Amino acid sequence: xxxxxxxxxxxVFEARRRWLQARAGxxxxxxxxxxxxxxxxxxxxxxxxxxxxxxLQRLLRARSRCTWQxxxxxxxxxxxxxxxxxxxxxxxxxxxxxAKERDERAALIERRYQATGGLKPxxxxxxxxxxxxxxxxxxxxxxxxxxxxxxxxxDG
Length: 156
Prior knowledge:
Layout: H1 9-20, H2 35-61, E1 66-67, E2 71-72, H3 80-115, H4 124-143, H5 148-155
């Protein structure tokens, strides 16, 4: 197993999986791979992941050319008018996305409401208690002196 020394375990498992699925390039899959061949396949898997890591690191280090607070940063040779147009378009896009999300949420709520058949009756005990509480609130509101909630808290 000297051939696989220093290769991460996950890369060896990935190489095994690729070999068993005949996805290790042009090979003779009728026989098990030799340790050096398995290392080649593992190194291929490892280099793919390293490439992805490199791409992600570059993305994380990238600097945005756009700042939402001040609008769009000027490109070399860009006029103030072009900057204002691009900044306005970015703001419009942001607003349209928020409106779209709001509309989608409203549609979801409407679908759920219709799927459940609307509001369900609460049951006689809850309905009776709710009716009593509303009647007491109405009585307190008629008496005056301020909000019914304050008086109900004082009475309790």
